[in-house]
Write a structure and sequence with these properties.
This protein is mainly alpha-helical and 117 residues long. It is built from 4 helices and 2 strands, in the order E-E-H-H-H-H.
């Protein structure tokens, strides 16, 4: 039996409450984990579902799951349309800003460039 000297116990320090009162110093057994710091319980089914979700469907090769993770979810029609618009706007912007060093005209093509490119 323990002699009750407290040498085996750990202490949780006192703290101050919002209203100004103080909490007392508490003695706890070694290895004690407060409930707010303890991990949440996960059933075996939950653990299995998380594992299955991370590895992909049963029978699918490991390489296929890596490719699937890199590509991400399929894009919607609106996302594809917006990407096309953005690419077209960037191309248009590059054409406008492209300087023409042969004639000194900026953004305008000479007849020589049109026919001999």
């Amino acid at each position: 039996m323990s002699s009750g000297t407290g040498t085996e116990a750990e202490f949780i320090g006192g703290s101050k409450r919002a209203d100004g009162t103080t909490r007392k110093l508490r003695r706890v057994k070694p290895g004690y984990t407060p409930p707010d710091e303890a991990d949440k319980f996960k059933s075996a089914a939950t653990k299995f579902n998380e594992y299955a979700r991370s590895t992909g469907p049963a029978g699918m090769s490991h390489m296929a799951t890596q490719v699937q993770k890199k590509t991400g979810p399929p894009k919607t029609k609106a996302q594809i349309k917006n990407e096309k618009k953005k690419a077209a706007a960037q191309r248009k912007k590059l054409v406008k800003l492209k300087p023409n060093d042969i004639n000194g005209t900026h953004g305008q093509s000479s007849l020589f460039e049109i026919f001999y490119q």
